[in-house]
Design brief:
The protein has 534 residues and is mostly helical. It contains 16 helices and eight strands. It has three domains: 370 residues; 66 residues, no CATH class; 62 residues.
Length: 534
């Protein structure tokens, strides 16, 4: 395929995915290491054992290398909203921009300020003050993630806003509805625990390498113990918050849930697919081809997880398109065609409203009060029609039923890969803690090798989670309100291709540079403690 023949929208999506994918390599490791090094320094302050100080200082160096590169990708990511997604920024910038501004002004500067104390204040401030600065770095990193995830959650579940037909923009009317959205709460916790999991897996794997090399044994044992405890807690909580997130998806984004499970035809008492392979012969949502080549299903679990009822009806892709099934609030689901018609009606209501307001202004200027009053009444009627139909606004942009369906195979496989890695990791960290308790971990080489080669798995699970979240909600940039093709900037494909190539080279170079510096620092190891052999 000719690269220039790919649409501007798809190139913009690819560039954003590239940047976000690289960003999510650095950010969760930053969050995870921030917690782990803060716990290690707390142990130093509480015990007075200088070896814990040595452990904390080593992981702070690794944190610093990663933090610097993560900032660069994050800045580029936010700039892309203005360059590649200007229509989106215009349409909802008053809402979406608020949490991002708070993140930059409060969280990021808080994090950046205390990082300087953490790195350069070891011999300049008291032990407790230094420990506080380390915890504040962790707090800043967590708050930074919180505000970004609030913005992302709003795209998945737009609340606290009102459409202004005079400016043709969405405006925030309830800040706390945006911040305290249940989708935002679950998404934040799930992402934060993902960061803890990635940091824990990284620390445990590197510590295992030292144990295999028989270097820095005490350092490695202290590190792997903290990493394993954090890792087990993180993955258990990921299972809990994952359940909460899946429940919110079932309520707010049923098409995403259907894609996650490869569910084309809904049913009562729907089972959860534990393992399965989709049938590539299935080309349409309404054909009779079986969607699976094989599957292992846990009976009724999807109904329970999605609706807290073992016999609840879970709509499939065909049901969501055809409509007609009962919703949880007692109403009946509208079909795609009905929602599309209502979206078109909202379009027309905006045009009619603006025409009536223009007539009202002209009549007022001419001193014709009767005409102005009549125009004002018409404008009010058109605004009422707009409010009634605005929840379906985005459907007016879509052409066919297939436009509503995300990439089912990609969503399905990444979701199940994430879940498999999650349960594997719970078992893995539990086994590591068992051997730590038995004081035989250094001699258990098979487990040390598994620890080392398991480092990439939490990263892969994190990337898979974001693919599920973002690909699963397609075609929407804002759920039900704005599809991607209407959010993109009017930029030529050639310009986006050029920057895509530049970013690919830049980010890959940054990743290689980070890995090289980290490997060099890891091979060097922690600074020696008096009386301890390397």
């Amino acid at each position: 395929m000719d690269l220039l023949s790919i649409s501007t929208v798809n190139w913009s999506r690819a560039q954003f995915a590239l940047t976000a994918g690289y960003h999510w390599i650095f950010v969760p490791l930053t969050i995870g290491l921030a917690l782990i090094m803060a716990l290690m320094e707390t142990m130093y302050v509480r015990t007075g054992d200088v070896k814990w100080k040595n452990v904390a200082k080593f992981w702070q160096k690794i944190f610093g290398i990663n933090f610097a590169i993560g900032v660069a990708t994050g800045i580029i990511l936010e700039f892309q909203f203005g360059t590649n997604w200007s229509n989106y920024s215009w349409f909802v910038g008053d809402i979406f921009g608020a949490p991002l501004a708070i993140e930059g002004i409060v969280a990021f500067f808080m994090e950046a300020t205390f990082i300087s104390v953490m790195f350069f204040g070891w011999n300049r401030v008291s032990k407790k003050m230094h420990m506080a600065s380390t915890w504040l770095v962790f707090t800043g990193a967590t708050l930074s993630a919180f505000w970004i995830l609030v913005a992302n959650a709003w795209m998945q579940y737009p609340v606290g806003m009102e459409f202004n037909p005079d400016t043709v923009r969405n405006e925030m009317v309830d800040f706390w509805a945006v911040v305290l959205s249940p989708v935002a709460f679950n998404k934040f916790l799930h992402a934060i625990f993902s960061g803890w999991a990635i940091g824990a897996g990284f620390v445990a794997g590197i510590s295992a390498w030292y144990l295999l090399k028989k270097r820095h044994i005490d350092f490695a044992l202290k590190s792997v113990k903290v990493g394993a405890i954090v890792g087990l807690i993180a993955f258990v909580m990921l299972a809990v918050t994952g359940d909460g997130s899946a429940y919110e998806v079932s309520q707010k984004q049923p098409m995403k849930l259907a894609a996650m499970e490869g569910l084309y035809k809904g049913k009562e008492g729907a089972g959860l697919v534990a393992i399965g392979m989709l049938n590539p012969a299935k080309k349409s949502y309404d054909d009779e081809v079986d969607p699976y080549i094989f599957k292992l299903e846990i009976p009724k679990l999807l109904s329970f997880l999605g609706y807290r009822n073992l016999n609840a009806f879970v709509p499939g892709i065909k049901d969501i398109i055809d409509g007609g099934y009962a919703l949880q609030d007692g109403t009946t689901a509208l079909s795609f065609e009905e929602r599309k018609a209502r979206g078109k009606k909202a379009f027309q209501a905006i045009a009619d409203y603006q025409r009536a307001k223009e007539e009202e202004r002209a009549a007022v200027a001419a001193g014709n009060s009767d005409v102005a009053a009549a125009a004002a009444v018409r404008a009010a009627n058109h605004e009422t029609i707009l409010r009634e139909n605005y929840p379906h606004y985005g459907y007016g942009y879509l052409e066919t039923e297939e436009d509503l369906i995300p990439n089912v195979p990609l969503t399905f496989y990444t979701f199940h890969l994430m879940v498999i890695i999650g349960f594997y990791s719970i078992l893995f960290f539990a086994i590591v803690l068992y051997f730590i308790y038995k004081k035989t971990l250094p001699q258990t080489k098979w487990l040390l090798y598994i620890s080392l080669w398991s480092i990439p798995l939490p990263f892969i699970a994190g990337q898979a989670g974001w693919i599920v979240a973002e690909v699963g909600r397609q075609p929407w940039t804002i759920q039900d309100i704005l599809p991607v093709q209407s959010a993109a900037s009017a930029v030529s494909s050639g310009n986006i291709i050029a920057t895509f190539v530049i970013f690919t080279v830049l980010f890959t170079g940054m990743l290689i540079a980070e890995a090289t510096i980290m490997v060099k620092q890891i091979k060097k190891g922690p600074d020696p403690v008096a009386g301890e052999e390397a």
